[in-house]
Amino acid sequence: IIDKLKRTQSWAEDGLSRLQNKEGSKSAYEHSQSAGDIYLSSAELMDDLMLVFTSLCETGNAVEADGILTDIIRNVSAFGLTLVPLDIRQESDRHEEALDCITRHLGLGSYAQWDEETKLSWLQRELSSNRPL
Question: 65 and 57 in contact (C-beta within 8 Å)?
Fold first, then answer.
């Protein structure tokens, strides 16, 4: 599971880098990955985690299963494959970076370069909107 997660992370970082650099071609790394080598959905990862959890419980190791593994399962359930809970109170730079990527992708310009009033106005409109970002 750990090796597959590392391959998934490298694959995702490579894809993000290509998007940020507006590169259209796939890298050698991406070409070398098959669907079985990486996690393409939260369900795939959850299946593997639950297999480990069940195995630990069935072999008398429920205490170990109820520790960090249960925390990881909860995180995957709550946050999906990215496992990235974003707490804007603790990490405003990451918040701004994420929103900047979104606004650039939507063709709205750079969130990072907007003044505070423009940021707040846009955030309020988006939060009150029914459409997801």
Answer: yes
pLDDT digits (tens, 9 = 90+) for 97-108: 889 999 999 899
Its pTM stands at 0.52
Distance CA 128, CA 133 (A): 12
How far, rounded to the nearest angstrom, does the alpha carbon of residue 114 sit from its chain's CA centroid?
A: 25
The token pair at 93 is 């730079």
Tally of CB atoms within 10 A around 45:
21
| Alpha helices (runs of H) in the chain, residue ranges in sequence order | 2-20, 28-31, 42-58, 62-64, 70-79, 92-105, 116-128
Tokens matching residue 8? 């998934």
Tokens, residue 3 = 């090796």
Are the C-beta atoms of residues 65 and 56 closer than 8 Å to each other? yes
